[in-house]
Design a protein that fits this description.
The chain is an alpha/beta fold. The chain contains eleven helices and 18 strands. The protein folds into two domains: 175 residues, Medium-chain alcohol dehydrogenases, catalytic domain (Quinone Oxidoreductase, Chain A, domain 1, Alpha-Beta Complex), CATH 3.90.180; 136 residues, NAD(P)-binding Rossmann-like Domain (Rossmann fold). 26% of the residues lie in helices and 25% in strands. The protein binds zinc ion (2 copies).
């Protein structure tokens, strides 16, 4: 490659995010350089914008693109292949990596988080060969970039122990709550109730497989479940991550019920220990996914068994992303936002950003 720099969304310090030129990373051993064609915005990108936990970095960890260059000892991939990758780069050889769970590798690096010049909101991103997957024919780059949040939802649905007779309540219809609803229906759960205060998100949940939706501001979840089901949920998936939402889940569950905590709770809070005790509840925390969740998601997309596309509410060029991230920091009605990093011009080009696939 002749070019040495690329446009990237760079988080310099809390609140300061811009499109600037950064060096194009070079693939080391077992690494692959990918030209990004589509990248998704995650709630955690918005969180990172305002925390001091993150060093200056290129954001973005949900992406898909085309291989342009491979490093030493990369045998399974070659330039021109369409790929997506887990945003965790492990050593590839320890017990965690060998079992397909690189997030616990002692040498793990997080793309779009802890690697200073490597993230998905850029023209190029570096990925590890052990965490990279070929995108099957028939799965376009936008769907491939959605594998990351879908894999999160798949793991949550799996931990919920989906069964046909189950009554599932999902708290929060952000992309992760919606992804969980998609899988719950695909895995045969009969009753999927989604709670969210935003009307447009409730509508999204309905188009993605929720059997019913509820506005938690209008009536209590207890009243709603009683009227809707004549009883309490068997399982609650907490996808809010705000103080009070864990207690909300344990309060509504039936005895022996199960709470899957998926929200990222950044603030310390006191939660009730008595509620889960009196009902002998199971509390399960769920973070990210393992390799089989990625592989299965790609297969189900290729076979058109799941369709997450209705989740997407905005398609943007890279240059529109700084403003969008600030807008998403305030209460908003955004669903999934997908970014085309090849679109970096600062002049408006009509609707070009919305019809790239
Ligand atoms: Zn994410
Ligand atoms: Zn490892």
């Amino acid at each position: 490659m002749e070019r040495s720099s690329m446009a990237a969304l760079y988080l310099r310090k809390p609140g300061d995010v811009q499109i600037i030129q950064r060096p194009i990373p070079r693939p080391g051993p077992e690494q692959i350089l990918v030209r990004v064609e589509c990248a998704g915005v995650c709630g955690s990108d918005v969180h990172l914008l305002h925390t001091h936990q993150c060093k200056a970095t290129i954001l973005g960890h949900e992406f898909a693109g085309v291989v342009v260059q491979v490093g030493e000892n990369v045998e399974r991939f070659q330039p021109g292949q369409r790929v997506c990758a887990m945003p965790t780069m492990g050593c590839g050889h320890c017990n965690h990596c060998a079992s397909g769970d690189p997030k616990y590798c002692p040498h793990v690096q997080a793309i779009g988080l802890s690697m200073p010049d490597n993230g998905g909101f850029a023209e190029y991103v570096l990925v590890g060969q052990h965490e990279t997957f070929l995108v099957p024919d028939g799965v376009d780059m936008e769907l491939a970039a959605m594998v990351e949040p879908l894999a999160v939802g798949l793991k949550q649905a799996q931990l919920a122990g989906c069964t046909p007779g189950q009554k599932m309540l999902i708290l929060g219809a952000g992309p992760i709550g919606l992804a969980t609803a998609v899988w719950a229906r695909a895995l045969g759960v009969g009753q999927v109730l989604v709670s969210d205060p935003v009307a447009s998100r409730r509508a999204l949940a309905q188009s993605l497989g929720a059997t019913a939706v509820v506005d938690p501001g209008k009536e209590t979840l207890e009243v709603h479940c009683e009227r809707h089901w004549g009883g309490r949920p068997d399982v609650v998936i907490e996808c809010i991550g705000k103080p009070g939402s864990i207690d909300m889940g344990t309060a509504i569950l039936k005895p022996y019920g199960r709470l899957v905590v998926a929200g990222v709770h950044m603030e310390a809070e006191q939660v009730s220990r008595l509620l889960p005790f009196t009902k002998e509840l199971q509390l399960i925390y769920s973070r990210m996914y393992e390799k089989p969740h990625y592989q299965h998601t790609l297969e189900m997309l290729a076979q058109r068994r799941i369709d997450p596309r209705p989740m997407v509410t905005h398609r943007l060029g890279l240059h529109e992303l700084p403003d969008a991230l600030h807008t998403m920091s305030r209460p908003n009605t955004f669903g999934k936002v997908m970014v085309d990093p090849r679109q970096v011009q600062t002049t408006r080009q009509g609707t070009a950003a919305s019809n790239h696939h």
